[in-house]
Design brief:
Blueprint lengths: L1 H26 L9 E7 L3 E10 L7 E12 L3 E8 L6 E3 L6 E7 L5 E8 L2 E5 L4 E3 L5 E3 L4 E2 L15 E2 L4 E4 L2 E5 L2 E4 L6 E3 L3 E3 L5 E2 L7 E6 L1 E3 L5 H34 L5
Antiparallel strand pairs: 1-4, 2-3, 5-20, 6-19, 7-8, 7-11, 7-15, 8-17, 9-10, 12-13, 13-14, 15-18, 16-17
Helix pairs in contact: 1-2
């Protein structure tokens, strides 16, 4: 019976984490470049059930010893949220008219991969899809969180003022001359990226320069931002499903609790 308590409790914890993740997705539905997190729920390793019996030793006394017998069946020991993985699909672009807003638009990006801007994070090079950029006090191009945007050579980009244009290949043109090219990286397997905060990502290895990947097609669109890829109606439906699953495990836990109460306070009196 105690095994059932642990199984129901693990289900409640897993559904609670899933609900928290969905609520965070919904809260960031209007955050530019935000990518929805997905939960991967896995089962704990199954246990092989055994019964305790007695075996007889082949001696004159025919001594008996405890013996474990397999019941040829197994039982699950509960579930857990194994990991959170971002869904890095393309979000809709919307026009802002701001020169420092530069959206990324995927034209031909292999399934499972993604392109991202390179920025100078706290622990080295990081990546983001949020093109909501601005200029700091020194005229350097930075993200809305204050991280320096890098060019294709890994250097910061200093423009001085907002009088510049960006073509569809990421080249920044100011006073009629190309001054820098936005650093865009390509992750062939987006699941290897780790999310930091809301819209920043890290990778264990250095990603490829997206401009040099054969067959890869994307555009940088000035004056536009990429909206989040959160499907609000689907997220609300998933939240209700997770809540109902939490309730079902909760009722199961209460049923076990009542059974234990009877075993201790009523049967124990006999």
């Amino acid at each position: 019976m105690l095994r059932g308590l642990y199984t129901a409790a693990s289900g409640m914890i897993a559904q609670q984490r899933k609900t928290e993740t969905l609520a965070n997705n919904l809260a960031n539905a209007n955050t530019p470049g935000f990518k929805a997190d997905q939960t991967s729920v896995r089962s704990f390793p199954e246990m092989l059930l055994m019964s305790v019996g007695q075996g007889t030793l082949p001696n004159q006394q025919r001594s008996t010893i405890p013996q474990l017998n397999s019941l040829q069946t197994s039982i699950s020991t509960g579930v857990y949220v194994q990991e959170l993985t971002p869904l890095l699909s393309q979000g809709d672009l919307f026009e802002t008219g701001m020169k420092t807003d530069i959206g990324l638009y995927d034209i031909n990006v292999p399934q499972g991969g993604t392109v991202l801007y390179t920025v100078q994070g706290e622990n080295g090079v990081s990546y983001t899809r949020n093109g909501n950029l601005t200029l700091d006090g020194n005229g350097s191009l930075v993200t809305s969180n204050g991280y320096y945007v890098l060019d294709t050579n890994g250097n910061t980009i200093t423009l001085g003022n907002e009088d510049f244009t960006v073509n569809d290949q990421g080249e920044i043109i100011q006073n009629g001359q190309g001054v820098a090219k936005l650093g865009v990286a390509y992750a062939a397997d987006a699941s290897t990226l780790r999310k930091i905060g809301t819209d920043l990502y890290e990778s264990d290895g250095q990603l490829q320069n997206a401009y040099n990947v054969e067959g890869l097609q994307f555009q940088t669109v000035q004056g536009f931002l990429e909206n989040s890829n959160v499907n609000e109606s689907q997220t609300m439906t998933d939240m209700m499903t997770a809540y109902r699953s939490f309730e079902a495990n909760q009722k199961l836990l209460q049923a076990y609790d009542k059974s234990l109460d009877k075993a201790v306070n009523e049967i124990g009196r006999l």
